[in-house]
Amino acid sequence: MFFTERGRAWRRQLEPAIDDIARELNHLRSTINKASGVASEGWKLLNETLSEAAPPRPRYPTTHQTSPF
């Protein structure tokens, strides 16, 4: 089928469409990567903001002995 004249003509029509699909998928991948980077940066900024707002942790644990039970 693909080696007949009709099959070759069909392949010639199909190849540009496949190239367009591949190009669009690459654009989609790029967009998703950019969105992922923006989301990661947002989470990083949010975590930094929340850690700055939290009270500082004591440097040493409390001197009270805890109950083993």
Descriptive overview:
The protein is mainly α and 69 residues long. The protein has a domain of 28 residues. The protein contains one helix and no strands. The longest helix has 49 residues. It is rod-shaped, with a radius of gyration of 29 Å. The mean pLDDT is 87.
Instruction: Report Rg.
Output: 29 Å
SSE pattern = H
Low-confidence stretches: none
DSSP strand count: 0
The helix count comes to 1
Mean pLDDT: 87
User: How many angstroms separate the termini?
Assistant: 79 Å
Helix content: over 70%
Proportion in β-strands: under 5%
The oligomerization state is: single chain
Q: How is the main sheet built?
A: none
What general form does the structure show? rod-shaped
Helix-strand makeup class: mainly alpha
